[in-house]
């Protein structure tokens, strides 16, 4: 704990973004972690691509490494995998002074983070996110989770890692649809921040440009998200900004029943919530088109047939992010000027009227 200027900093950690970082782990990990056992948790897509590179360097640093591989995919965010991994940690005599490294996308990060937060009441954690979504979103903010049959991310903790290491070159091996999905999250942040960040997004006119501009895009997104999270760790106020596009997006995602990826649904949600505010004269004219263009250039979807249907309103009523009978729509008055619009859930349909 650090005490400074009447402020108490409970946990302070570094997020390093650098091309080729995956080959320079010693410089960052060794000063932080004393000799210990390390569980390298990865999945069966990422493991074959990157685990050997990481393991080799950890061995060179004299850590005793155990590689634990989970099946790739959302289904691994389960009690079954929690139990399996925790039992493997126990069988290998992991103690609280040992450590976990999460090497993978958001699924590995969420699961390994959750396990790190509960094994022996908390064991040290380093995140090495390899998907674009994990690099710009899930590895920053300390949220961990697994899913229940009743819903995604229903069980979880807030648990901050000791270090986050982001090597943007890993996104070169991502399937294109996942690369583009992660970029949707970046456009969302850029629209909220505006300025230089929005200018970088203007340079992305095809999916390959995401890779060309990756380091700048990731840095801008992470510094925005870290700033928000630092001010609002437990998501009570400012962090709600990050829900831009989520109210409509979640509903569409649910109704499309697995056909849309989360980031694709959020892209649709952003465009349509903006169209509503623009029609009502609460947003500078042309802002919706500017956001749509950025998303469309990389092939993100902008529309879904469910928008405005009775099922759509029912899905919004059941959104777990909506507290009581009140919801808050996030929009931008213009690029870089976000705003909140609180509304009674029951009044949403009337308020939207023909605008959706
Ligand atoms: N904790 C948070 O704050 C937070 C925020 C947003 C999303 N999430 C969670 O993150 C998850 C989604 O993240 P995701 O999209 O990274 O999913 P994911 O981990 O399933 O990764 C997507 C796919 O890409 C593969 N992959 C990852 N990196 C790769 C690489 N470099 N090369 C080739 N393949 C690679 C994975 O094996 C997987 O098949 C969801 O479970 C979501 O709930 C968490």
From TrEMBL:
Location(s) in or outside the cell: Cytoplasm
SUPFAM superfamilies xrefs: Dehydroquinate synthase-like (SSF56796)
Cofactor(s) needed by this chain: Zn(2+); Co(2+); NAD(+)
Free-text comment on the cofactor: Binds 1 divalent metal cation per subunit. Can use either Co(2+) or Zn(2+).
Domain 3-dehydroquinate synthase C-terminal: 182-321
Residues at which NAD(+) binds: 106-110, 130-131, 143, 152, 170-173
Gene3D superfamilies assigned: 3.40.50.1970, Dehydroquinate synthase-like - alpha domain
GO function term, MF aspect, one: 3-dehydroquinate synthase activity
Boundaries of every 3-dehydroquinate synthase N-terminal domain copy: 68-179
Cytoplasm as UniProt keyword: yes
EC number of the protein: 4.2.3.4
A Pfam family this chain is assigned to: DHQ_synthase
Broad class of enzyme this protein falls into: lyase
Segment forming the signal sequence: none
Function field: Catalyzes the conversion of 3-deoxy-D-arabino-heptulosonate 7-phosphate (DAHP) to dehydroquinate (DHQ).
HAMAP family listed in its UniProt record: DHQ_synthase
Name of the protein this chain belongs to: 3-dehydroquinate synthase
Source organism: Liquorilactobacillus capillatus DSM 19910
Originating gene: aroB
